[in-house]
Amino acid sequence: MIRLIKGNKQGRDDYLKLLNSRRTEVNSDVVKSVTKILNEIERRGDSALIEYTNKFDSKELNSQNILVTEDEIKDAYNKVDKKFIDSIKQAKKNIEKFHDKQKHNSFVLADEPGKIMGQRYIPLKRVGVYVPGGTAAYPSSVLMNITPAKIAGVDEIIMVTPVRENLDINPSVLVAADIAGADKIYKIGGAQAVAALAYGTETIPKVDKIVGPGNIYVATSKKLVYGEVDIDMIAGPSEILVIADETANPKFVAADLMSQAEHDKLASSALITTSFDIAEKVNKQIEIQIKDLDRKEIIEESLKNNGIIILVDNIKEAFEIGNEIAPEHLELCIKDPFSYLPCVRNAGSVFLGSYSPEPLGDYFAGPNHVLPTSGTARFYSPLSVDDFVKKSSYIYYSKEELQKVADNIMTIAEDEGLTAHRNSIYVRKN
């Protein structure tokens, strides 16, 4: 089911090339289409927003029904199972508990008379959360995007999500948004929703940052409005890498590789192992388990095109390759995984041991599942409370303290050729 290669330099280079091939350039027609939508929303506001929404999604949207009402949220609760509601509430508690530890304290440095310096952490005023509709409507992502923003202290969280023909929104998404604490939910999606959040319209308030996944049009629009507002990241196809030794359970490993492959035909599932026996058994387990899975065709194509098993001589080599791949999700199905945690330099989230599968992180454990993809775990981090605050520093010097350092400052300013900077200090000397 998945091709097997040796972990030599050529083998790893071939796989890295395969991963890079998924990072295709955005089609120029997509950029052109998105740019037109962004410009129209910025220029015409609600009029263009409703026009594009009725063109691509519903035919019935207007300025009176664009905002989700309390009655619609109550109706959503009636459409979902109570066990789902209880599970979402428990997941939210776990996510809150983890992200609460990420909060920073402002500090003041005043250990010398006449000098005070410090740094303040300030929550963003307003954040937009994009939630996909249709088959990619994931209530778990609603929790993961809204909860850290609430903990950070964001004043207002605006959620947008596309509707179906009859103005319906996935009820599970509405329930999750209500439990997570979205302040307002608007029935808009696509590039037009991103534009509305970035520029503001008569109905939609302008936000400071836009987070959340979406299709190629949403991703392109987020990229194009960056600078007007901040964004979280440009997400690529899902990824999982499992590092396994001879103690791994091939049934578990096979299940976990397929759990990522079912996302998308471009998703990548990789196994690096020191055991040829494990490699063979994993492939056999995939053949057995895939028969009963709903998204069998997607999984098969994903594994065929982007799946790989890399056989290495030792665990050290496995981690060397793993750090080059810098996967979104990394599972360590090895003996004593905690002892190898320091070997992990590049990974979005790490899952330790055979009973910590990737879906545990997707839905319930607490750490965020919005993770860097396409090798960007080399320099990006998971979504966190940090993404919803900004920092400001401040400085106070008394007259006497400024006099002590005035010559140093003027010397540096002169060296840089900035005489107005020098003068700003000089006029305060004595």
Automatic annotation (TrEMBL):
Keywords: Amino-acid biosynthesis, Histidine biosynthesis, Metal-binding, NAD, Oxidoreductase, Zinc
UniProt feature coiled coil, ranges: none
Active-site residue numbers: 328 (proton acceptor), 329 (proton acceptor)
InterPro entries: Ald_DH/histidinol_DH, Histidinol_DH_CS, Histidinol_DH_monofunct, Hstdl_DH
GO MF term set: histidinol dehydrogenase activity; NAD binding; zinc ion binding
Cofactor comment text: Binds 1 zinc ion per subunit.
Residues annotated as binding Zn(2+): 260, 263, 362, 421
Domain of life of the source: Bacteria
Residues annotated as binding NAD(+): 130, 192, 215
Key word Glycosyltransferase present: no
A GO-annotated cellular component: cytosol
Keyword Cell membrane: no
One GO biological process term: L-histidine biosynthetic process
Range of residues in the leader sequence: none
Reaction(s) this enzyme catalyzes, per UniProt: L-histidinol + 2 NAD(+) + H2O = L-histidine + 2 NADH + 3 H(+)
Entry-linked PROSITE patterns: HISOL_DEHYDROGENASE
Cofactor: Zn(2+)
EC number, UniProt record: 1.1.1.23
Residues the entry annotates as binding substrate: 238, 260, 263, 329, 362, 416, 421
Known pathway: Amino-acid biosynthesis; L-histidine biosynthesis; L-histidine from 5-phospho-alpha-D-ribose 1-diphosphate: step 9/9
Pfam families, per database record: Histidinol_dh
Function summary: Catalyzes the sequential NAD-dependent oxidations of L-histidinol to L-histidinaldehyde and then to L-histidine.
Similarity field: Belongs to the histidinol dehydrogenase family.
The protein's name: Histidinol dehydrogenase
Organism per entry: Clostridium tyrobutyricum DIVETGP
Name of the coding gene: hisD
